[in-house]
Design goal:
299 residues, mainly alpha, 14 helices, globular, disordered N terminus
Length: 299
């Protein structure tokens, strides 16, 4: 991947061959998973994998799809059931977005996850990455799929940068220019680039000695320079509003389907204003519901 010209089969072979030989055995990559859940399984897995490690997602994904194996099944759930099932996956607004998307799929598309990228983008909670991931990995269409791991591989192998810059439409354009012309080959290439970034071309300690692109990598050829990192850093979790929100949600999940007096929600939290902000933001996001002096999961 040293240039932005479309690779032929020979040029893409090192990456795809490496992927076929070393890819992790993950549920959403198995044929039986696709046979059973189709594009819905892909969509749910992609929602869960956003900013969440694979090993945490797998048990939740299996439990989720056992309970709601189709969009129509999930569309019949209540928001409280959805938030409860999401458990400790983090960023729980994703659960509500997924629920809304399921309702939209049931109402607009007859219970079948749409194939077209524009139709997928019109669903709640779905952006450029998720829409293209479903179109490519569930339906086999040719689109560039760019996540954080892919962006890092592109930055190093093609652009000679230690870390990618802020996300941009240019990432999709660059990946598209590198994809093989064949639909099936392009899907494997997309998956291989993501896998390489997740397991070998990692952010802090890349394993260049194991990389199938080491001989053509622009960053390695330049001596692996420190070109800086302009990405926005995530605030620490400990002591953050996110931690307070998570603590409130854990309490509400324990009480569900009942409610908790607001005065009894984290009464010993060290920062009372932060606790109140957490409660208010959960209500605003639709993740909690206040009824007088009681707080519960959304009904």
């Amino acid at each position: 991947m040293p240039t932005t010209s479309p690779p032929d089969a020979a040029e893409s072979l090192p990456l795809t061959s490496w992927y076929r030989a070393t890819a992790r055995d993950l549920p959403w990559r198995r044929s039986e998973f696709h046979d059973r859940f189709g594009a819905w399984g892909t969509l749910v897995s992609e929602f869960m994998l956003q900013q969440t490690p694979v090993n945490r997602v797998i048990p939740h994904l299996e439990a989720w799809l056992d309970r709601w194996p189709t969009p129509t099944a999930m569309a019949g759930a209540t928001p409280a059931q959805v938030v409860q099932q999401w458990a400790n996956l983090g960023y729980p607004r994703r659960a509500l977005w997924l629920h809304r998307a399921a309702v939209e799929i049931a109402e607009r598309h007859g219970g079948t996850v749409p194939r077209e990228v524009d139709a997928l983008l019109a669903l709640s909670g779905i952006g450029d990455y998720t829409a293209r991931a479903v179109a490519v990995f569930a339906y086999g269409d040719r689109h560039p799929v760019v996540d954080t791991n892919t962006r890092r591989v592109l930055a190093r192998a093609v652009q000679g940068q230690a870390q990618p810059g802020s996300p941009s439409r240019r990432d999709l354009q660059l990946m598209d220019s590198l994809l093989p012309a064949d639909d099936a080959a392009s899907a494997v290439f997309n998956a291989a680039a993501m896998e390489l970034g997740a397991t070998v071309c990692t952010a802090r300690a890349p394993h260049c000695e194991r990389c199938p692109l080491v001989d053509t990598c622009a960053w390695v050829a330049a001596g692996r320079p420190d070109t800086g990192d302009t990405r926005r850093k995530q605030a620490a979790f400990e002591g953050s509003d996110r931690q307070a929100r998570g603590a409130v949600l854990r309490l509400l999940r324990t009480a569900s389907p009942g409610a908790v007096p607001i005065s009894a929600v984290l009464p010993d939290w060290p920062d009372a204003l932060q606790r109140d902000r957490a409660i208010d933001s959960l209500i605003a996001d639709g993740l909690a519901e206040a009824d007088g002096e009681l707080l519960s999961l959304p009904r």
